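Researcher: Sequence recovery benchmark, item below. Answer with residues only.
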């Protein structure tokens, strides 16, 4: 397999193998060969580049059910190009089946990915992911391991249909559930809707976190062009997988490592893409974590400036109307990048070994399509997301203004405070709740440490009694996240979080809160003395205690706030650069 005299050096094929040692290097290779031959490989098979393939199929993960098919196609591409494919497992995370939250497990998957890439001999690795947390986790791990790596996503689901109307996970999950809560549709109807929300394997079919991360990762340069939007069940996805395998062998030969691809300029391209697609707020946290692994700090104020000049161009739910299959038919990411071209750094290297600019030149000719708009006719002109600061969020908060009731973006109203998720669940539908459409719903202790795991609880439900009156949106504020598929005037990621002593912990029911989206502010209208007095009265238990042992202890001690991407302190190298660069 390797150069037995020095396994750290490339062998006769030019490949580098990270061999574990038994003191005697030659014996070490001898032993490994014996075990790999037990798998049925011949010497001829082993004198080739080894391409690891990360297998993230799990019986719990519908979003990854096509992974075995994709591994087969990747393996074919690897073998056609003279390499030998070796699939290996890492943990798999599905949004709906991850407790306490999927975010809590993302860093664990990143650790697993990094160490398995490091531990096993491979010259390049194909990362197969799709569901929300898996793409960030795989990229975080691969960047830290810094072995040549290429990403392949499982691809979006097709849309379903109910009574002639198209629907899909999970914007329509929420829309129909809200109708059911408000009494507009009955139990039989909501059950029929449930059958159609996730009609195929693959990732959620709207511009949620999975779709956003797939497109951002392609813009980052970590995926072959055209790969982000191909639906999971199309033959085109398998062909793309085969090409990914072929390319992985070339990546190995060229030694093209992630540190040459993930740079401040390519992170900026990814952040801009996320804004232009009207993407999920979660993607900001994930891209911050991904950049962090490469020693790049994402500056929130710089990100806000990027937002001011990057309109939403893609007409997909929850901001617009379509589904990912529509974006695929419209050409996928290519027309989006073409529209953004004057704002992109075109000299960024991609996994193709060519620059992003060269790939845009080489892509299919543009054609008329209704999904991706030109810069001059955006779906939403003022930028998908806004960074807020103020006495409620000294380290920042985020609002997805393109998915909000535009009339609520400037709003002052009285707070109704829920101390945590249990309090919210117990009282939100109480008929005696002191709430009007002007009320600002505040949720505390749902941040990275508080819940723990920063659940997608920021989309506080509209109280039933208001829902029956037809109220569809209210201002809501929390230190939580929100699903990328949700819609509403929702301030998220308030940092520092309540459980870490952030000022959100000081808010009481009846305080006046002002959301000034245009002015980039979120404030509670109290003077500093009142806030200081309340801070002194805070019970010590407001500070989350570290768990006694295990992963939870690691989480409690290490997790960074949202503005640090919720990564673990010990896994982030010192920042040597900042993004965005403009
Ligand atoms: Fe996996 Fe939505 S639940 S992508
Ligand atoms: Mg999601």
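Model:
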């Amino acid at each position: 397999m390797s150069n037995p005299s020095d396994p750290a050096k490339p062998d006769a094929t030019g490949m580098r193998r990270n061999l574990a040692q038994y003191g005697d290097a030659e014996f070490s290779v001898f032993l490994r060969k014996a075990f790999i031959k037990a798998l049925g490989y011949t010497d001829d098979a082993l004198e080739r580049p080894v391409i690891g393939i990360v297998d993230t199929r799990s019986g719990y993960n519908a979003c990854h059910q096509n992974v075995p098919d994709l591994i087969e196609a990747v393996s074919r591409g690897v073998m056609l190009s003279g390499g030998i494919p070796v699939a290996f497992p890492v943990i798999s995370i599905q949004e709906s089946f991850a407790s306490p939250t999927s975010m809590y497990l993302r860093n664990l998957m990143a650790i697993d990915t990094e160490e398995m890439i490091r531990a096993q001999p491979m010259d390049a690795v194909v990362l197969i992911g799709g569901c929300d947390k898996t793409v960030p986790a795989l990229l975080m791990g691969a960047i830290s391991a810094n072995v040549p790596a290429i990403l392949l996503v499982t691809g979006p689901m097709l849309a379903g249909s109910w009574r002639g109307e198209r629907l899909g996970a999970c914007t329509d999950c929420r829309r129909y559930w809200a109708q059911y809560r408000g009494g507009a549709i009955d139990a039989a109807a909501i059950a029929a809707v449930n059958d159609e929300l996730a009609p195929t394997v693959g990732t959620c079919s709207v511009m949620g976190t999975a779709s956003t991360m797939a497109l951002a990762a392609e813009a980052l340069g970590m995926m072959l062009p055209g790969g982000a939007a191909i639906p999971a069940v199309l033959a085109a996805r398998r062909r793309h997988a085969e090409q990914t395998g072929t390319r992985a062998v070339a990546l190995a030969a060229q030694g093209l490592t992630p540190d040459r691809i993930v740079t401040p300029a390519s992170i900026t391209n990814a952040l801009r893409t996320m804004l232009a697609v009207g993407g999920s707020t979660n993607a900001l946290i994930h891209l911050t974590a991904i950049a962090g692994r490469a020693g790049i700090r994402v500056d929130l104020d710089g990100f806000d400036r990027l937002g001011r000049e990057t309109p939403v161009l893609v007409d997909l739910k929850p901001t617009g109307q379509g589904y990912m299959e529509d974006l695929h038919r419209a050409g996928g990411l290519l027309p989006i990048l073409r529209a953004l071209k004057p704002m992109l750094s075109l000299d960024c290297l991609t996994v193709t070994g060519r620059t992003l600019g060269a790939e845009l030149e080489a892509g299919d000719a543009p054609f008329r399509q209704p999904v991706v708009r030109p810069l001059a006719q955006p779906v939403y002109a003022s930028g998908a997301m806004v960074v807020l600061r103020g006495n409620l969020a000294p380290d920042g908060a985020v609002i997805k203004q393109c998915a909000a009731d535009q009339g609520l973006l400037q709003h002052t109203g009285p707070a109704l405070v829920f101390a945590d998720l249990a309090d919210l669940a117990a009282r939100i539908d109480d008929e005696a709740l002191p709430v009007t459409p002007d009320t600002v719903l505040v949720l505390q202790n749902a941040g990275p440490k508080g819940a723990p795991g920063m659940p997608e609880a920021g989309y506080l439900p509209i109280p039933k009694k208001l829902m029956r009156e037809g109220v569809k949106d209210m201002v809501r504020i929390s230190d939580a996240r929100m699903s990328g598929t949700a819609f509403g005037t929702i301030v998220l990621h308030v940092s520092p979080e309540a459980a870490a002593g952030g000022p959100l912990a000081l808010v009481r029911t009846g305080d006046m809160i002002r959301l000034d989206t245009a002015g980039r502010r979120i404030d509670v209208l109290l003077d500093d003395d009142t806030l200081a007095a309340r801070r002194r009265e805070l019970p010590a238990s407001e500070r989350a205690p570290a768990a006694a042992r295990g992963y939870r202890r690691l989480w409690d001690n290490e997790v960074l706030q949202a503005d640090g991407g919720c990564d673990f302190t010990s896994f982030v190298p010192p920042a040597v650069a900042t993004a965005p660069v403009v």
